[in-house]
Amino acid sequence: MYRVISIILKYRNFNNSYTNSKSEVLNTKQIQIAKFKCSKHCFEFLSLKFRDCLGFSILKLGFSRTVARLILIPLLLGATKYAGEFQELGVGGRACAMGGIGVAQYADPSVIYFNPAGSFYANRSALIMHAENFAGAVKNEFGSVILPKGNMSFGFGFQYLSVGDIKLTRLQDTIPPSNSNPPIPYDTVGTKDLVLYINAARGNEMLSYGVNIKVFYRDLAVITGYGGGVDFGLTLNLEYLTVGLAIRDFVLSPVIWSNGTKETIVPKVSFGIAPAIVLSKINSVVTFGCDIVKSLDTEGFDLNLGFECAYKDFAFGRAGLYRGNYTLGMGVKYKWFSLDYAFVTHSDLHDSNKFSGGFTF
Questions:
Q1: Domains and CATH numbers, the chain
Q2: CA end-to-end span of the chain, whole Å?
Q3: With contact defined as beta carbons under 8 Å apart, do 241 and 72 qualify?
Q4: How do residues 174-186 score in pLDDT, each as one tens digit?
Q5: Cβ pair 316, 330 in contact under 8 A
Q6: How far, in whole angstroms, is CA 75 from its chain's centroid?
Q7: Which residue among 111, 141, 241, 267 is least packed, with the fewest CB closer than 10 Å?
Q8: What's the longest Cα–Cα distance across the chain?
Q9: Total-model pTM
Q10: pLDDT in tens, 59-68
Q11: How far is CA 334 from the centre of its chain?
């Protein structure tokens, strides 16, 4: 997703030109170089101050150094850094209001995005979401449905991202841009990203495992691409505690571009824990949550925190911390229907508003 944001910063806000002065359209090579440099810059300034604290230590849990060298290093060498950023915008009003946590929670069908195994414990339900990210610069639509059946569950979902009003510019003269030779907009384009999910999970009252099969389609105006991937997840479901482990793009996910080039998305490991406290005297349940997210193509990790207070399973207040940015939200549930809202702050890319609604059937 930072690739999309980088295009906005370069072409929408600053109107810089990456155009060959002898050509009236941007060529593919220039666009790729510009996107990479800008997405890297965006990712770095969004990182938390403590991202470098533990390095790759989380990867060493349960693995010997020999196994890590034999398996992880070859995978990383064959991957493209930041290739999977278009999947990074969270989904679901509830999860986003709670700091973007969802690996160890399965209150609604948005769990397909966070942890494929969590769908086993969700009700037969459907959810849709609309989000205006970064003051409306990036639109994010999501929808999913979960269908339990015996000791299994099946689910389907989609995510659609779009950015409009991206200005393409060119220079009047061959000299570098300046006050006397400013970039001149000559066209306006948009980008689109579509991800389709097919989910299956199996388990019992305490344990479950699940998998997503994904298909990507990307349209960056000057180049298109397609690809696919696999997500894997595990959950532990106790009375007042849930624990989850998810690996996004468990096998390196390819993105094949229309110009013949290929990128691969490296795995991202997420671990979540969510204890709950029942306050029977006031008919409330307080839930805390913590997700630790480690991308194998960068150093350090992200720590997301969330909180929810539910009153009579009717009214919900939520707050959290997502990559160092505060989140707030609320929700209401009546019989089979629910509505949720999330407000996600950001000091550099402006704030986001996310709305979702769902129902059980």
A1: 2-360 (2.40.160)
A2: 33
A3: no
A4: 788 888 888 888 8
A5: yes
A6: 21
A7: 241
A8: 75
A9: 0.76
A10: 333 434 443 3
A11: 29
